[in-house]
Structures
1.
Amino acid sequence: MNKTTIVLLFALICSVYFIGVGVDTMDVDASQYATISREMNESGSYLQVYEQGNDYLDKPPFLFWVSALSMKLFGENNLGYKFPSILFAIFAVFATFRFAKLFYDRTIALLAATVLASCQVVFLITNDIRTDTILMSWVIIAMWQLAEWYKSKKTMHFILGAAAIGAGMVTKGPIALFVPIFAFGSHFVLKREWKQIFQPVYLLGLLVIAIVLLPMSIGLYQQFDLHPEKTVNGLQNISGIKFYYWTQSFGRITGENVWNNNAPFSFLFENLLWGMLPWTLFFVAGLVYEIIRIIRNRFFVGRNEEFLTTGGFILSYCSLGISKYQLPHYIYVVLPFIAIITAKMMYRLFWEKKLPLLLTILTPIQWIVCAALVVAPAMILLYSFPTTSVWPWIMPVINLLTAMVLLVHKQVNKKLISVSLALIVGLNIFLSAWFYPQLLQYQSGNVVGRYIVDQKIPADKFFFYKFSGNGKSIHFYAKHIIGSIDSLDAATTGTYLYTSDEGLKEIQESGKLHVIEKEGLDYHVTALTGKFLNKNTREKQCGKYYVVKML
């Protein structure tokens, strides 16, 4: 491909990220982080973080910092919250290209950038914004700069790499340090480069990291360590410093962290199978190939080879996989490594024409994947969110026609890759433009939050009352913190109550005059099930919410 085609391709993919700006935040995490960022923007408290006026001790503050600053530019809205993370996702794609180009030719580097930019999970994390998008970006930027230093020995690259590690730690903790250690450590050992393991420059790196971590550490110390009397998460005498640098990460392994969902070791890999669509087959094949190759080479890496990506992925996966608490997005920090492993396999199969038997096996399965990408929008429009409008069908039709044109066009090489790419991009345009907005109508927090703004309901007149749903997003879309009341005695005339069936029953039994101003279905939209997606069984899967005005 020429430069113009490449630029247009990546511009198209990036434009899909920005289509997702129109989609409201999803409960729980994204809505919670958007609310914290809005509150930080409003209060101006950047070193000490609060959620709904209470001390917050969970995630490091970098996402809140950049989102709060973004809100100053774009307002307290979806764009203000999502823009920094989308920008960092684009940085990650660029850094993946530059990192891969240090060790492979331009085609593999472009393939790696394309795989990362277009895999389903990156479309997701530029929409459902959490800390992992920025973390992934900082880690691959660190890997790129450290690899530049490894090859050129220019100290400035090492300093920039260390600074990126520090920024990654301010984004999501020590994992930002350990991924590069796993990657370079395994690479040095398998190349028998023992002198690389201990170098004085590493002390400089630690100093740079410490300087980057200083503002966050000061804030933690002032907010928590100086106030042992504070009760945080039900506990007193909590050290913010210890929490961030030990308990939050290593406590998941030692058991000190209270979170435990007993996820199996295979949990993260199982979630990558859908997350890496449409490139899953090539990723799995590439990973197996790399493992077999290193075993055959008796755990030795040749002079012109690298083990940074494979070693970094395997060791990072193992460290995360033994945690007592896992969520699918924990492994996203190494998505750039996965993209490079995938790109190398695609290059072997389609450019070098190696492993013909494997290609013969994978090709029909990949065409089935492509067929599923074509069918998915139609199933959503027929089975999940039917509509009489014509426009939602336009994107699936265009997607199908594009695939057909690519198939018959004589000048299109590597048709399987081209069709897969076109279909996944088209699918995510459809998801962001139609599916997610339809889905978010069943998340009551953002619906009710917008209702509060539209009706100009005063902040001191709207409260939670025995609401059993999530509702985290209400604070962000109402543009202020919504309080709660425990007794109807506090519900004076003109008060609005956000409640569920239990609360409505008590209001009705109290004999107080009231009117239901708004009601609807409520569902945890990030925990989709087939019964919810089925329009005929959806209502039974949902709770109900009510906005009640006391008269």
2.
Amino acid sequence: MPLLRLDKTSLHYGTQVLLDAVDLSIRRGEKLGLLGRNGAGKTSLLKILAGEIAPDSGERWLRPGARLARLEQTLPQGDDIRVFDVVASGLAETGQLLSTYHRLTGDANADLDRLAQVQQQLESVDGWSLQQRVETTLSQLDLPADTAMRELSGGWRRRVALARSLVAEPDILLLDEPTNHLDIPAIEWLQEQLRSFRGALVLITHDRRFLQGVVDHIAELDRGHLTLWRGDYRGFLQHREQQLAAEQRADALFDKKLAQEEVWIRQGIKARRTRNEGRVRALKAMREQRRQRRERQGSAGFGVESAGQSGKIVAELQGVSHAFGEQVILRDFSTVVQRGDRIGIVGPNGVGKSTLVKILLGELQPDRGKVIAGTRLEVAYSDQLRGHLDPQQNLIDNVCGGQDFIEIHGRRRHAISYLGDFLFSPDRTRTPVSALSGGEQNRAVLAKLFSRPANLLVLDEPTNDLDIETLELLEEILLDFDGTVLLVSHDREFMDNVVTSLLVLEGDGVVSEHAGGYSDWEARGFSLAAAAAQEEAKAADAERGSTQRTAPQPSPRKLSYKERRELEGLPARIEALEQQQSELEQVTSSPQFYAGDHAEVEQVLAQLAAVQLELETTFERWAELEGE
């Protein structure tokens, strides 16, 4: 039985058909990747699934009692609300109680009567286990609970939004571009979390490696129709290529027959004789069918105009060191960037990737060391915050300076024609940038970036919000570009397909150079997650040593009455879980098990995984309480 179902659902925006009588069923344990071009309606479909907007026609059904959470594509506001409160808000009314309790316990002058009242309310709704869930989620994403949202960067605010979605442990999780603004360790952590997620998942992402690693079903939204595929992303690509070829052959045969019938109808009066009326009616039906055919949107067709060769040396750093306060970005780092290099710059968020780029470009002077700039450089620089666009101006004003014509590759082109290469229709060219989707804004950045000649491209997170087809075209353009490319990206597959070497910022000012792409670096046994864990362990050891020298060891905490009752009930709970695990393992070990219904097989396997996870969690809780 599905958790969520859409029946004959349609949605139109003006003349644009986003959904045309779409049917979709989502079952527990399914992990569905939703694909489609920018503007195809993926986010609108997600909002219909979430119940946030109503379709023009059709029915949405949600199983009674099913919990649903959605991660929006836009970042949370940078306001004064604390991280703990934002994450706890994913638990509705209980989350508000937890926020109040967290605030009161951190206030030395708190109202003790109010604190006792909140504690009582939390006990009545099993709030302590939910508090532990909030704190565990904060810890897993390394989030500072008492920090205001306005103090966080875009990547950290994205983590907070993820934590708010995950803390509710929903039956259905809807994620819209969850990897945007996340660094690679966070993406890898999220990938593992979603693999073990027991509920249903619907995921929109441009990160192909992340998509391949998470989903087991694919749905493609194309011209209002939803095509479903059981299997992973790579299998879907082969299936789609065969489908498109078959569609093109069918359309060609139809158009040929229609042309023959049009010749026949024009032969004269004999075409309108009574015995041919059926043929005339069939021709009219063919005309209507051809009129209603929605043609596949063309591919983007942009390119980069070379500005002529730069000098052989693009930039050279000699013994460069730089820090912001106590945070060391570079420590005695030397390197040479040569003409034609395609260098990927990777590292966790906040480690200083953009700072390194600015030092290489001469926009920022280091604290120590020498920076030698190359000659004849024509730089095109795109930052990840889209700061080059005025949100109040329209596309033509932003990209073409308000002029009707722009010079591209030495010839004048009409602004509307040039923007058409980036898949903007004529009516969208007069739309304010603030009204464009994230993917459209990123294409607008590329349109402005590529409107002038360059021999050094600096791209800071260029893949955010782009659809996969545009990503693949951008890869081809960068490979054909005869200049130098500096790329800051968390998209591992994009880097694999573009760069020839890596600069890895490992933290504490350490930068290492490696030949090849990101997968080549991983194959040598390196990992950003491992490097981040090592840095955290060093910091924890230093803090622990300082604490041991300056503070006495705290005495063991006594168990509360509720914790003692919980400890007494854990052995029986463990025994019941072990019995349930044994029964499920007997079912799955049967030779006939995997020959049964696919949905039932998946359901039993998901149940077994859930029992095993709960058993491990219960053992850990038992050990924790026994050690108090």
3.
Amino acid sequence: MSEMYDAIVIGAGHNGLTAAAYLGRAGLRVLVLERRTMVGGCAVTEAVDPIAAPGCRVSTASYVASMLRPEVIRDLDLPRHGLRMVPCDPGVQIALPEGIVVPWWGNSERCRAELVRYSARDADRFLELDRELKSLAAYLEPFFMEPPPDLHATGLKRWQEMWRVLRRFHRVSGAEIERLMQFLTGSLGELLERKFESDVIRRLILANNTYGKHGGPYQSGSAMGLLFHLLSGGEQQAQGFQGHVIGGMGAITQAMAAACRSYQVEIRTDAPVAQITVRDGRAVGVVLENGMELTAQAVVSNCDPKRTFLTLVDKNALEPAFRAAVECIRMAGPAAKVNFVLDREPEVRGMPATHTPAQRSFFTLVPTLRGAEDCYNLAVRADLPADLWVDCVMASNVDPTLASAGRHILTCFVQYVPYRLNQGTWDQRREELGDSVVCKIGEYAPGFADSIIARRVLTPLDLERIFGITEGNIFHGDLSLDQLFFMRPLPGWSQYRTPVAGLYLCGAGTHPGGGVTGAPGHNAAHRILRDLRK
């Protein structure tokens, strides 16, 4: 049995839905195929434990909206389809062992008043750094919503590519270029030690930097996260935006799915793809695991590059050298999630009594710079660190619809943890990780363990199994300088096309990378539309 479409999108994660919506809006007949029973990929809202805690839901994997592109929100009219985001303020807040809670307020003067308690000199330098980073991030912003420079272009196209890059930087000074390169290639730890004397302020900045990527704060390129987290997001295009999504992160992808349907895009769940069909060097459709064949002018994979090329495409359709390069993409996800249902809100020592519930919704248990480096090095050696870095969000403090009466939702992002363990397996040690997180939170919020009604631990292996992301890497490949921009996913293949004609990538493994941004899906769709018009 065969059906014909203009485009088939594999995977209903947020980038797949974004690409499908743009293609559908352009008038194409589009089909989205999702292996799970629900759309959303890693941006989903699900029950933690429907038996122990009925009516309690959590953002299972992705847990906060930071860089969701304003263009995508506007173009797909996501608010009309139900999307509502509440800005987080403070957007970052750390709890320290001494019983101190330090918020990073959005208002500069309010933030300075908070930080001057620890160092007046550092408080001023903190605001200077914030202003400088926002200025430099603004130069990178336009590149998020367009393909990276095509270094392999020739003739007139080559000159057009050079002009596209140069016009973005025509106002940048030489000093700004130097600083931009320092942030893109430098060590965060060395930067913070050089610039700040207060360990408290160093840890506050560290808490907003290296999420989900490989490398401790002293490794080259670790300062890059400072720039990325100050790119714009949200409907109002605010730099450094962080937002709680009402209804959990699944509300983003539900709104995207509704936008797709408004453009007559067909979405099928419980429809796992077994193979991408390639004939005479061109992708012509897919075969589902149930044997159904579907054909299309374009096949668009929202899967990560390894799953796409090493699992879905027959090895004979690719050059051995290309497959070898794909195999070398660094994945090995370094992060885990632990989700809780509680019978009361954790009482974090030092949390200001004047804080509203929304202001208490964020608290990060972040180690020192050296402690974070040690934690990463242990994970690299396939050991489970004892002193974990845990980012906590009390989602029900902002959105009470997530929890039933008398219940509270806490979601925790944990790094650094190894994908493979030296001793035992994740199936054997999964709950050990959960216990470590409970103990860690209990050090800052006494009695936390007694408040737990239900919990769900998601190791990197679980993220791979549940969401189909190779090695549990939430970014579909590490966000390091040698795997970004025109190097993503591989040198020579950064334009969303692949060596197989008619096959495109639209996921986080392409430029500009991971996070719930919608940018890869947007950029891939526009590339496909240009190619189909030709």
4.
Amino acid sequence: MTQTHINIAMLAHVDAGKTTLSEALLYKSGSIRKAGRVDNKDAFLDTNEMERNRGITIFSKQAVFSYGGCEFTLLDTPGHVDFSAEMERTLQVLDYAVLIISGADGVQGHTRTLWRLLARYDIPTFIFVNKMDQLGTDHEKLLDQIKDTLSSACVDFSKNEDGTYQDKDFYENVAVCNEKVLEAYLEGGSIEDESVREMIQKRELFPCFFGSALKMEGIEELLFALSEYTKMPEYQEKFGATVFKITRDAQGSRLTHLKVTGGVLKARNLLTGHKQNKPEDKVNQIRIYSGEKYETKDEVEAGTICAVTGLSYTYPGEGLGSQEESELPILEPVLTYELILPDGVQPQAMMPKLAMLEEEEPELHIVWNEELQEIKIQIMGEVQIEILKALISDRFGVEVEFGTGKILYRETIADTVEGVGHFEPLRHYAEVHLLLEPGETGSGLTFAADVSEDMLSRNWQRLVLTHLEEKEHVGVLTGSPVTDMKVTLVAGRAHIKHTEGGDFRQATYRAFRQGLKQAQSVLLEPWYDFRLEIPNECIGRAMNDIEGMSGKFDAPDRNGEMAVLTGIVPVASTRDYAKDVTAYTKGHGSLTCT
């Protein structure tokens, strides 16, 4: 059975051996001659100098390999929590995922977060339990833990040397995941491979494999399963594509990484997105990357992940052609830091350079505060700060520092208001009326126009929408960014002789501000979902701590010597709590926050 093309990604908690497994798959499939190692700094996929020095994956990369009549694009994603938004954007272009669990550590907090994200994006998943060569790893215990914490539909697919399944109840365990398959199995005593494929694709069955990527154990079993039990999704005939990443190559050319979700993409194509007021972009070159090298193509079909040059206005999450916009990542930064520039470097000169970084990492969200003459950057955590310093130094030759982190609040409104903005000094004139309405939680800011062209020509309407989108609007309570609102242009006026483009910018900003001042404003505070795993004797201390932080929790779940507390807590009060947990549990406790 030949299949055209499958896109898979390696996902894991940091240090579970994700890059090592990727190297092993590439080596065993014949794609590379020698498997690199993270500790030797020669991993095929860790191409960035910082990644090699730190031994962690920071930027998602891709490689292409073939096995058993299947062609695969393999995406290696960051495992560290600080770079989870990069990983989450990659999820939106996957057909299948391989979730790696360290046999030495078992299912960890971030593994659960990944599992929830895979469910949210509805991605069929294979599980590989790595590092089984380490002392003290227990196959049965790990499998039980995976079934308990992730899903009872996780089934051991490991085989003996004679090709029989290690799990003597293998067929029964597979059959119970689907009623029709169970009926067919009870009647005929066997299960069709096509049924297994369908169950995996529908997320009714999750095959588990055990091995060691470093020792090349269990790799061929996993490769065989990926070629045998995956199905290429069906794609539409009309052209569509999802953008998931923006980068720059060694020459500084802007690369748009996308997955073609329908039809065919050809070099020289003109592409349009869904955003209003955005010019058409023309594809110059289509590249299929594998590690640092790439080959160019004249055209690529649906299902292909590629990078294209020539596009100036694309952004991660954008849908091109018939493809809708992707959802925003749910793992968002909750801290904001001031960027401190060295003497002699002007913030105004630095902002365009930082804007290039923001294109590549949209969740950085870089803001220039005119009043304070400060640059603010939103960040996930401490590791990301160090990487950013190195990145800015490498790319632009500027040594920056960061101030202390502050909690990132947001503001929204609770009622509907109309804001009016006038701008009419001598020989200038513009008037704008905006309707501000509360949006759904998590919807961000959406802008629309609902005004007759007899009242305000289309060009002026477009200009107002551009001005609404071009800056970050702040609230009137604390000056925090506003979110979760729908803003509609409902009226406006221009003067035939005296109106210039800049007049509408002033009138638009004034209308927005005036509307916010009339509205009932609401302050939004970031909260964490937390999971605290601690020895039983520490449970009282932990409950007191969470209450002291104004958090809420469910009844503790006791399992042997350990107890688990789950609940919600304000970000502001948990700043250094992970260190406290390590101290009072003598290193046995762990805190996971999302």
